[in-house]
Design a protein that fits this description.
Largest sheet: 9 strands, mixed
Order of helices and strands: HHEEEHEHHEHEEEHEEEEHEEHEHEH
Radius of gyration: 22 Å
Bound molecules: glyoxylic acid, manganese (II) ion
Number of strands: 16
Length: 399
């Protein structure tokens, strides 16, 4: 918990937690995490995309590896646990083994992923994509809000953008396990400290730009306007209505930018983000299509144009049955009732599922609040998560 507090101070904003991919704030966070990994007996490596990896060898050289981890980047004005908690719990579990001079029949590798949220480059899972061998080299040409190319950001951070393929996992992976705050209210409502995750919802993210015509706020008659911001507003409400009508879908417009952005100028252009999610593959496809069609209809009705860019598409992913079973047993052995959960939030496990069976453990968080500075967990619940992870490791060692 103290370590999460220390990481919270690694931010590019004085009054908020904002820790983007390949930033100075991230560099600071990674130097702390490297030290903690070394203290827990791990050898530490920084890969090209910018992940930190700590390795704790097993009983014999050449043993398979269990991967553990979560991400160190954050959203803007974030809480302190989304991501960092999973890295801290994994390090604590390794520390526990080290304190007991215990080696397992498999090696452990704790990965602090470089980018899960995608805040800086509108990407998601850059760190786990590199590990899973699914990093798209075209992403290197993305630019951030300051116009900095991703390839330059990676180079400045110390990695070689032309060798990200070398970051791909080689060897046998027994699985990937991530501990994360629930980011939802189920555990709290059931009075449980932890729960096992059975699957992660799919999500599609888009950028839309409505283009109309800028003009004088005082002289252009209402009927003659081609107001891009009004179109964006209509679209936002249409998205909300669409998602409300389909219980299996959530959809969010979290960002709007109006150009030129002046009180007395009709907006000629409005850019916005769209994030659509569903645990059901077909439902996600249909809902996303429908919302993009609505954008076209709204634009046409107002004599505007709309341009759509697809930023990321991630299908729903199921957790591995065997790992779910072992995590469930660990939870029951620790004395708690089972609560199987589906994650509406995305996680690095989505990419990691390409190369290894995945499992996740959720930790109760206050009010289910996340992506918000009010994120809160209790020290007791985090203690339970560490205990369950230790029990899980021993169960896996005996399997
Ligand atoms: C990651 O936190 C997401 O937006 O799901
Ligand atoms: Mn998040
Ligand atoms: Mn997260």
């Amino acid at each position: 918990m103290r370590r999460c507090d220390e990481l919270a101070a690694c931010s590019e904003e004085a009054e908020a937690i904002t820790r983007p991919f390949a930033s100075d704030a991230m560099r600071h966070a990674q130097s702390l995490v490297s030290d903690w990994m070394e203290l827990a007996g791990m050898t530490v490596l920084h890969d090209n995309v910018g992940n930190v990896r700590g390795r704790y060898e097993g009983q014999s050289a050449g043993a398979p590896t269990l991967l553990l981890g979560s991400h160190l980047d954050s959203v803007r004005d974030a809480g302190r646990y989304d991501g960092p908690l999973g890295v801290m719990v994994a390090i604590a579990a390794v520390q526990h083994l080290r304190d007991a001079s215990r080696r397992l029949p498999f090696a452990l590798e704790v990965i602090a992923f470089a980018d899960e949220e995608g805040m800086r480059f509108g990407s998601t899972y850059l760190g786990s994509r590199a590990l899973a061998g699914s990093f798209d080299r075209r992403d290197l040409e993305r630019v951030d809000a300051e116009g900095i190319l991703m390839r330059h950001a990676i180079r400045d951070f110390g990695g070689d953008p032309d060798h990200i393929a070398d970051d791909a996992w080689k060897g046998e992976a027994l699985g990937y396990i991530e501990v994360h705050i629930e980011q939802g209210p189920v555990l709290e409502s059931r009075g449980l400290p932890v729960g096992v995750v059975v699957g992660i919802a799919g999500q599609n993210r888009y950028t839309l730009a409505f283009t109309g015509e800028a003009g004088h706020a005082g002289t252009v008659p209402m009927a003659l306007r081609r107001d891009a911001l009004a179109a964006a507003a209509e679209f936002i409400l249409a998205v909300e209505a669409e998602a409300r009508a389909e219980p299996q879908v959530v959809a969010t417009v979290g960002k709007v930018i109006a150009h030129p952005g002046a009180t007395n100028v009709i907006a000629g252009r409005a850019g916005l983000s769209l994030d659509v999610r569903s645990a059901d593959r077909a439902t996600l496809l249909v809902a996303s299509r429908r919302m993009l069609d609505l954008a076209e209809e709204i634009a046409a009705g107002r004599k505007l144009t709309v341009e759509v860019t697809s930023d990321t598409r991630n299908e729903a992913v199921g957790c591995d049955e065997g790992l779910v079973r072992l995590l469930s047993r660990a939870i029951e052995d620790a004395g708690y009732t089972l609560a199987p959960l589906t994650s509406g939030a995305g996680h690095d496990g989505v990419e990691m599922s390409r190369i290894a069976p995945i499992g996740m453990l959720f930790v109760r968080c206050k009010g289910g609040i996340s992506h918000n500075p009010a994120e809160s967990v209790t020290v007791e619940d985090v203690g339970v998560a560490i205990d369950v992870l230790n029990r899980f490791l021993e169960l896996l060692a005996r399997r």
